[in-house]
Specification:
The protein is α/β, with parallel strands linked by helices and 446 residues long. It has a domain of 205 residues: Rossmann fold. Helix content is 37%, strand content 14%. The protein is built from 16 helices and 13 strands. The strands form 3 sheets. Strands 4-5-13-10-11-12 form a 6-stranded mixed β-sheet, with helices on both faces. The chain has a 4-stranded parallel β-sheet with strand order 8-7-6-9, with helices on both faces. Strands 2-1-3 form a 3-stranded antiparallel β-sheet.
Length: 446
């Protein structure tokens, strides 16, 4: 297999009884022997030739760089992502390096030691999907340059995946096919791939139906699958774990709470922490909370049975549309991570997620509904005393709230069906008469 210096990586089957390996330059998504998903494995014996202290110093030295590719929060960790790729094949839009919002006032009100929200939505296309897509599209760019007959990339999406894929593929000049569930994607998300020139196909089904279609389409080796069942996506997304610890001066928090739909994100998060532990950068692992919308909660139901059984379900319509998934592809990877990381799965009702998003906004955030699911899960676990007073918590915010203006507006206008908005902040009307203005101010500040 190809190497860059002494570092190398390859695909490996996740089945512990198989572990068949494949070159990263192969167009493959499942093991040809047993049919299981793959993961990217690195030659950690070579990586261990640097100490944990040396890796920390190297990664920290690249922070704040304005030079390509280290201006990317993913590619400044290239040795742990795609060590073999040439810089000229990298397709980057400066992703990563996103703000870790210190919600210190809210932490004090909740009795937590600290509370930070990782703002992954402050990225080129407005979601954490940029972290994985830069890696996948870069590898496709490399393979096309090598002469592999890949004529398009394709994905099923509830919005953010398609936005990221369309943007990065457009930058590289790679045609894109996007399959979206009709009438289940916000306007802001829908127009992103359209604007970037993707061929957008709206299907009269849900995300799980779109996923079935794109898997069939990508059986054509000339159409490369870009969903998270392709483990190249996970490689970029795992860097979020490293970046969070850099921003916390390498101190591991007690809990990380992450919303989950197709479940590639939680497996990526865990893999990032596993690699840091194996290479000596950290000595302990955080607990991980996977937060699901109550209307799309197959993993929560499995968790209640100690993961002894997992049953896909038909996801119902939820405000958290990006995680409206009833048959997650990466469920086995997610369960492995949750078992290792003292994992908890919690759910949030529509009212709980909407109120939690708005509650966070009152401390300076601007939360999308999926972050609302994670915040609601945190609040419920504090109440259940599973997250304890004084503990340190990080919430993963997966997308920019500006993508969900309709959700925010409807909440504050009390127009979300079936929800009694508890934290409404209405717009107050007044004439320009100064007496009226002062009287209103007096009322509002009393």
């Amino acid at each position: 297999m190809s190497t860059h210096l002494n570092f190398s990586a390859h695909f490996s089957c996740i089945n512990p009884d198989c572990r068949k390996e494949f070159d990263l330059d192969t167009v493959i998504y499942r093991c040809t022997s047993c049919g299981e998903l793959l993961e990217v494995k690195h030659n950690t014996n070579e990586l261990k030739k640097k100490s944990g202290k040396e890796w920390k110093e190297l990664f920290d030295s690249r922070l704040g760089s304005v030079r390509f590719p280290n201006n990317s929060g993913i590619w400044n960790k290239k040795e742990w992502v795609l060590p073999s790729i040439a810089d000229e094949d990298i397709v980057s839009s400066g992703e990563g390096n996103t703000h870790l919002f210190n919600a210190s006032r809210w932490a004090k009100d909740l009795g937590l030691g600290s509370l930070h929200i990782k703002q992954c939505g402050i990225s080129h296309t407005g979601s954490f999907k940029d972290l994985g897509m830069t890696v996948l599209v870069s590898q496709v760019n490399r393979m096309r340059r090598m002469g592999l007959p890949i004529r398009a990339v394709a994905c099923a999406s509830t919005g953010d995946t398609s936005a990221a894929l369309a943007s990065y593929a457009a930058k590289a000049g790679i045609p894109t096919l996007v399959f979206l569930p009709a009438n289940k994607v916000s306007t802001a998300q829908l127009i992103q791939p359209v604007s970037n020139g993707a061929k957008v196909i709206s299907l009269d089904t849900d995300f799980d139906g779109c996923m079935k279609v794109v898997q069939e389409v990508s059986k054509d080796p000339g159409i490369y699958l870009a969903n998270s069942m392709n483990s190249l996506r996970i490689e970029g997304q795992k860097t979020i774990a490293i970046e969070i610890l850099q921003q916390l001066s390498w101190e591991v928090p007690d809990w990380i709470v992450i919303p989950g739909g197709n479940l590639g994100n939680v497996s990526a998060l865990g893999q990032g922490f596993e690699l840091m532990e194996e290479l000596g950068l950290i000595q302990k692992l955080p607990g991980i909370v996977l937060a699901q919308a109550q209307k799309a909660n197959p993993l929560y139901e499995s968790y209640l049975k100690n993961f002894e059984d997992f049953q896909p379900k038909e996801a119902q319509k939820t405000l958290a549309s990006a995680i409206q998934i009833g048959n997650p592809v990466s469920v086995k990877k997610a369960i492995r991570i949750l078992k290792k990381f003292n994992g908890i799965v919690e759910q949030a009702s529509e009212e709980e997620l909407a109120d939690a998003a708005s509650r966070g906004d009152q401390y300076g955030l601007y939360n999308d509904p999926h972050t609302g699911v994670a915040l609601a899960a945190m609040l419920k676990l504090i109440e259940k005393k599973k997250i304890l007073k004084g503990e340190k918590v990080v919430i993963i915010s997966t997308a920019n709230g500006l993508k969900f203006t309709e959700f925010k507006t409807a909440y504050h206008e009390s127009e979300i069906p079936g929800i009694d908005s508890k934290l409404v902040n209405k717009i107050h009307k007044s004439s320009e008469n100064m007496n009226s203005v002062f009287q209103l101010i007096q009322t509002l500040l009393t």
